[in-house]
Amino acid sequence: MSRVERSFLSWNLAMMERSDEAPIGWSLEDTEQAVRERILADPPALVLFQELPRLVPYLETHAMVRGNPQTHQGNLATLIRHDLLAEEPLGRPSVRMVPGCALLVTFADGLTVANVHLAPGPGAVGERLEQVAQIVEASPTPTILIVGDTNTRVAEERPLAEAGLLGGRPRQATWDSKRNGFRSDGPRFTAHFTRWFASPGVQVDRVIVDRQPVEIDGARFHLSDHFGLRGTVTLDGSVYVRPGEFS
After folding, report:
1. DSSP 8-class letter at 21
2. Cα dist. 14→6, 25, 49, 134, 160 in Å?
3. Which residues, including other chains, have CB under 8 Å from residue 228's CB and lie 6 or more apart?
4. What stretches of 109-172 adopt beta strand conformation (E)?
5. 184-240 pLDDT, tens per residue?
6. Which of these, 160, 238, 208, 188, lies nearest to 9 by C-alpha position?
7. CB 72 within 8 A of CB 120
8. Any idea what DSSP says for residue 120?
9. Angle, CA of 145, 149 and 153, to the nearest 5°
């Protein structure tokens, strides 16, 4: 298999609600337009949205795959750039869903990308591991990238790694309510909720956390309580092994 590389952006959009720091009159339509402009400034091959309010920001450079599953909060959507879609048989990849947590897209070259929104909270470790096991089982290929709002904690890296899924934490937090200020009355802490886990032979690099606020009418604010995560996923041509049991 030849080396395959694709850029991606994963972003939990917090139901596209209005930041408490946004100017008076800022609307849902303003958020949608600002998200669109942010992505079109450097459009990745794949856009993975979590926590959508049954509304998907329009990107003229991309098409949405079939499927808009609901999770514990909002809906998922995966968008693929038109030039990448043109390379797929019949102009579309294979799509599968894991109810309540994931939308899987499998490309003709053998890469499966799972856009995920896993169960929240420190007490849901077992549920998250079970969801990951279901995602791996649902994947038609052993080469899988699981990326999105995983809600995972550091202690969950070990059982996932033992099962064959290596996790990556970006250098900067993807949740930073001390810096973000999206909800003025919310708890203040940092975490790496938006992140990735990958099977052997699937590499993720060039990772950037988009922490840039919007500036308008003298106000500085963020479009979501989560920061967007950009990166590049590569199939390196290795012999691939499907991840195993999760405990």
Report:
1. T
2. 25, 18, 10, 25, 26
3. 9, 10, 11, 38, 194, 209, 210
4. 112-117, 144-149, 166-168
5. 998 899 999 999 999 999 999 999 999 999 999 889 999 999 999 999 999 977 666
6. 208
7. yes
8. P
9. 95
Nearest to 48 by CA among 86, 3, 6: 6
All structural domains of the chain: 4-235 (3.60.10.10)
pLDDT tens per residue, range 45-57: 999 999 999 899 9
Confidence of residue 4 (pLDDT cuts 50, 70, 90): confident
SS3 29: helix
C-alpha span between 228 and 225 (Å, rounded): 10
Gap between the Cα atoms of 49 and 75, Å rounded: 8
Spatial CA neighbour of 60 closest among 47, 70, 73: 47
